[in-house]
Structure formats: C-alpha cells, structure tokens
Amino acid sequence: MIKKYALPLLASTFLIAPAAHAQDSEIESLRAQVSAMQAQIQELSQRLDQYQHAAPTAPQAPAVAATPASAPVAAPAPAANDGIEISFAGAPEIEGAGGWSFKPFGRIMVDTGFTSLPAGLAASDGFGSEIRRARLGMSGDIPGGFGYKFEVDFAGNSAELTDAIITYEDGGLELTAGQHNNFQGLEELTSSRFSSFIERAAFTDAFGFERRLGLSAQYKTGDLLLQGGVFSDNIDDLPGKNWSLDGRAVYSPKLGDTQLHLGGSLHLAQLESGNTVRYRQRPLVHFTSERLINTGNLAADSEFGAGLEAAVIAGPFHAAGEAYWQNVDRPAGMTDPTFFGGYAEVGYYLTGGDSRGYKGSKFDRTRPNSPIDEGGIGAIEVNLRYDYLDLADGTIIGGQQNGYLASLIWVPTDYTRLSFNYGHLEYDDAVIALPSGSRSYSADVAGVRAQVDF
C-alpha cells in the first residue's frame, strides 16, 4: 500500500515547488523535507516486506499489471464444458459425457389440390387443403445402450401421439418398447418425409396399418435384417383386448453401386369378441373425405396379412413394388374374404449425381448433389406408379381401384421438398353409384405438398 502511494505523494509535493519559485530558501527547505519523506517511505517499505514474509499467506487474487488505456485486455479463459459437444445436422444435437445425447426434430407438411369426380356423383369434390402433418419430437441416447424417442403430431387441431419408445441396443440386437410401427412393409416403414408420392400406396391405409403399443426386437447381421414383435392397439384405442404378432425379414445386399432390397412380412391379429373391421380408401389425396371403395363394417374374429416387397436403386434410377394379402376370419357361418393390394413404381433423377437414399432396410433422405444454398438447383425426380386395391371377394363387394400416378419432386436442400402429384383413378363396383346406376367410372386428382423437416 505504501509503495502504491509513494509516486503520487512525490508528484503532489513537486507541484508545490513552482508556486514558490522565487523563494530559494523555501525551495531548499522543501527539498530537505522531500529527502526526509523518501527515507521514511523506504523504511516503511522494508518493514512491510519483512511482515509479508513472516505472516501466513492468504489466498489472493492474481496481481494485474497496469496497462495503458489503449492496450487490449485479454479475454478470460473459457470454462470447461464437462465433455458436452454440440453438433448441427438440420437441428442441434447435444452429446454429453457418458453416452447422453438429446436432439429435437420435427416436420411440417402442407397439402393442397383438386379432386375431380364424375358429374352427378353424390360426393364432394373440387379444391381442398390441409396441414397434413405438424410434428415435434425429441430423441437421444442414455448411458448403458438405452435410447428414447417421443413425437407428437398437432395437425387437425388436436395433439396425437405418434412415436413413444424406449430402446436398448447391444451389437446387432435392438429391443423396442412403446408405440411404434409394426413391420408391415417397405412403403409403410419409409418415413413420409422421403416417400415418392404425397400419400402411401392405397393398401397401407385401407388395411389399417398404424403405430401400435408393443414390444419388439430386431437383429441385423450383414445384409440380413429380422424384425418381430407383439402389439396391442394404437394408444388412442386403449384399453382393449386386441393383440397381434408381426414379423418382417429383409435381405439387402449391395452389388457394386447397386442397392437391392428383398423382403416379406406377416401379420396375425386376434380381435376382441364383437369387434368389426372396415377397409376403405380415398382417391390418392388425404384432404378429401370421400372413399369410393369401402367394405363397410365386417364382423371379425381375427385377420391375417402377408406381404412381399422388392426394390432396387442404381444411380439415378430406382424401382420398387409390393404385394399384400389381407384375410379376415369371420364368425361361424360367414365367409372369410381375402383382399389384395399392391403397387409397382419406377423413378429417375433428372439432376446429375443424385440418387434415392436408402438406410436401415427402407428408403431414406435424398441429399442433393448441388443444393440451392451452394449455388445449384437441388435434386429433381420424376416417378410413375401403378397402384391397385381390390376390396371385393365373395359376398363382400367393396370395389376395386386402379390408380395411375405420376409425381415430380424438387428437393432444393437436404431438409426441404416440394412435390407435385397427379392421379387418374378408375373404379369398378364403387360404393357410390352414378345417377344411371353405374358403379364403374374414373376420377382425376392433383395434389401439391410443401414440406420442411429438421
């Protein structure tokens, strides 16, 4: 402290000297006083040093050297992050020490378009639009090989739980508990974010494929994937006594740059006594409520489904197809109908270097070779599909739908997509008749979807 004030004291002392410049005797006197004060300061400084060496040292803040006002001040060292890492791929992903992670995700899909039905048909058509999906969720890992996923859909002015699962992984084995898809084919398991058309093949909706509460396991070894589980109902329909066994096997070898996919699935559902099933379908788009083919409610004890699936991806080209049979076991004395649905499609990217994504035995994200945020035009793909659904067998006349579909998909960036769809649908034995009584006619549908996901 004494050293700190020595210089200012001396400076203030010499400020007095100019005021007495004419008085030499006084100047000499002042000089003598200054010399005496310097001696006293030196003596006090020595005593202070002796005291600091003798006394216990208490923790002190590090001394800060005096710097000119214009000199830059060093920034404080960053605090330790405790092993936390943050990466970004569409959304931030936070990874912590020990195997913790957290990532938010979501999607929004807005559809609009027109349906054109035959004149005189007692059904509404024309312009339609909707927010098809508006989902938010989170997923991540928990130490010990565990994981979680939780997703809610807010479309339709209501909140609907889609996925809610806990997983455990050990090598090629993965166990899943909660509400999730139950392995009914390539088209159903491919995310709506990556589908070729704005709606999946007609049979997937008609036969009631949906997420259900259950416990499942899957095992992957090399190019072979085996999946199976036991399920109850969708949580919106619980509590209930319906249950099902579902399984799927996929062989997906890669021959050079060509990806192959061959698979099959089985579904056996035991229904609560007194239950009914109903199979029906819209004309391609979801924003219309009209179903021109419909079995009506059928009393049922159980249902059995079997599906085959195949796909190939070779550079900008892809092809895919599925076939699915759904048999209904009805109470004694009633016939047991079998219904059928399937599709075949081809697709091609018009932009160089682009190809359809594939991961985990299903179609995945397309990442444009030249996205617009890097000065390119994104990825442009055209698709053609034949979609068939037959809901007539024996005494059940639910109608047949033949769909001839085309889509043009523009993917500007990894996480944005614009899809234009057209469908010409031909009906036989439709449930709504023309004024003439005919149940055979056609309909035309156009739909557009804008989507963003993260």
CATH architecture of the largest domain: Beta Barrel
Order of helices and strands: HHEEEEEEEHHEEEEEEEEEEEEEEEEEE
DSSP strand content: over 45%
What's the name of the CATH homologous superfamily of the largest domain? Porin
Which term fits the overall shape?
elongated
Largest sheet: 16 strands, antiparallel, barrel
Question: What would the keywords be for this entry?
Answer:
2 domains, elongated, two-stranded antiparallel sheet, mainly beta, 454 residues, Porin
SSE blueprint and pairings:
Layout: H1 2-14, H2 24-54, E1 85-88, E2 92-95, E3 101-116, E4 126-142, E5 146-153, E6 160-170, E7 173-180, H3 186-189, H4 202-206, E8 212-221, E9 224-231, E10 243-251, E11 254-255, E12 258-270, E13 276-277, E14 280-281, E15 293-294, E16 298-299, E17 302-314, E18 317-329, E19 338-349, E20 357-358, E21 363-364, E22 379-393, E23 396-411, E24 416-428, E25 441-453
Antiparallel strand pairs: 1-2, 2-3, 3-4, 3-25, 4-5, 5-6, 6-7, 7-8, 8-9, 9-10, 10-12, 11-12, 12-17, 13-16, 14-15, 17-18, 18-19, 19-22, 20-21, 22-23, 23-24, 24-25
Helix pairs in contact: 1-2
